[in-house]
Design a protein that fits this description.
By secondary structure, the chain is α/β, with parallel strands linked by helices. The chain has a single domain, classed as 3-Layer(aba) Sandwich (Rossmann fold), CATH 3.40.50. The protein has an eight-stranded mixed β-sheet with strand order 3-2-1-4-5-6-7-8, sandwiched between helices. Helix 1 links the parallel strand 1 and strand 2. Helix 1 packs across helix 7 and helix 4 runs parallel beside helix 6. It binds NADP nicotinamide-adenine-dinucleotide phosphate. The site of NADP nicotinamide-adenine-dinucleotide phosphate (NAP) has 32 residues, from helix 1 and helix 4.
């Protein structure tokens, strides 16, 4: 299923929100496959610490200053990758926030909803569009949007299904991201770009106060699989480690 790297032309990836959690492990996994990996992160100290740790483990990692909510930052990130690599083989849109709590719909501070959508949806569109010219230069471009099964409307409306807490900012932002993924897949259907959404599963990270039951490395596996999927792989679909997730 997965495409191997070539020694002379390492594949190039950008992982957003890669300084910690699932994003860090996605970068580590791609690095272990021989990819050159851009560590997209907004905080310089945390970004450089992640780059140093990945390099110490043998990965070809490089820092990419990146705030997905900021046009100028995203434009500069695209320029940095163009100057360094000239193309991009995989973009993993991993950066995400919950929007904070509480998120009961009847009492929510609407700024929580706005913040979640700005990062988890608009940020993905902003980054994807800035990087598309570089992805188009790749022989096998892949885009992976790190979503969540809590955004699955099918699961939300299935009695007894595990759907997470009531959260009117976070869960619908992932539903929105899933819908956005489908729209990109439709527009890009006649290209060699494959774009999919993935769910890492309930993973122990800062996002949930480390209450998740999976390790970040386990959470990263599905994104790595779709970032490295071969040309006959899927597009416009939604996966976790168990297989396809219903929209
Ligand atoms: N953990 C889970 O159980 C779980 C389940 C399903 C889906 N997910 C999804 O997995 C992805 C990764 O989450 P995680 O669990 O690894 O959480 P995490 O440890 O909190 O990591 C989130 C990452 O996103 C970055 N980020 C947030 N806003 C950003 C912005 N405006 N610009 C650039 N980077 C930004 C954070 O950077 P800073 O360090 O600067 O804040 C951090 O690197 C998210 O999309 C999340 O929704 C997680």
């Amino acid at each position: 299923m997965s495409e191997t790297n070539t020694v002379n032309h390492p594949k190039v990836a950008l992982v957003t929100g890669a300084n910690k959690g699932i994003g860090y492990e996605i970068a580590a996994g791609l690095g272990a496959l021989g990819w050159s990996v851009g560590i997209g992160a907004r905080n310089e100290e945390r970004r450089e610490a992640a780059v140093d740790k990945l390099r110490a483990a043998g990965a070809d990692a490089f820092g990419v200053p990146l705030d997905v909510t900021d046009d100028a930052s995203v434009t500069a990130a695209a320029r940095l990758i163009e100057e360094r690599a000239g193309r991009l083989d995989a973009l993993v849109n991993n950066a995400g926030i919950t929007g904070g709590g509480p998120q009961e719909p009847t009492t929510v501070d609407v700024n929580r909803v706005r913040a979640a959508v700005e990062t988890n949806v608009i940020g993905v569109i902003r980054v994807t569009n800035a990087l598309l010219p570089l992805l188009r230069r790749s022989p096998a471009p892949r885009i992976v949007n790190v979503s969540s099964s809590v955004g699955s409307l099918t699961r939300q409306s299935t009695p007894g299904a595990e759907t997470g807490p009531i959260a009117v900012a976070y869960a619908p932002s992932k539903t929105f991201l899933n819908a956005v993924t489908v729209q990109y897949a439709r527009e890009l259907a006649d290209t060699n770009i494959l774009i999919n959404a993935v769910c890492p599963g309930y993973t122990a990270t800062d996002l949930n106060g480390f209450r998740g039951v999976r390790t970040p490395r386990q959470g990263a596996a599905i994104a790595i699989r779709l970032a490295t999927v071969s040309a006959d792989g899927p597009t416009g679909r939604f996966f976790d480690d168990e297989g396809e997730v219903p929209w």
